[in-house]
Amino acid sequence: MGVSVEEFLRIVMRLPEVSQYESAGYSGFKVAGKGFGYLWEETETVGLKALVEEQLALVAERPEVFEVQFTAGRFGWVVVRLAGIEADELAEMVLEAWSLSAPKRLLTSV
């Protein structure tokens, strides 16, 4: 079990129109100018956009893998420890995070 940083990058960069940017200590990911994810390579963790209900359910179910990052309106960002998640589950979470920010015209392309 566990996903490497390289695997995470392959998952996220497969999605349409994703752009990556670098900031102090992390990489960010956007679609159509809207953020949906972060990567902290040093700690091998990612932050992903989710609905608040999903954020709370993930953290309650597996606090050793997920933690609350922050909430903003109806969105609850989730920190994911890459060592504790399988690639297929992470890919599903990345797709969901991307879908929450992508324009409707892109949603039919995946």
TrEMBL record:
Top-level taxon: Bacteria
Any one GO molecular function term: DNA binding
Pfam families reported for this sequence: YjbR
Keywords: DNA-binding
Key word DNA-binding present: yes
N-terminal signal peptide: none
Protein name, as recorded: MmcQ/YjbR family DNA-binding protein
Taxonomic source organism: Nonomuraea mangrovi
Taxonomic path: Bacteria, Bacillati, Actinomycetota, Actinomycetes, Streptosporangiales
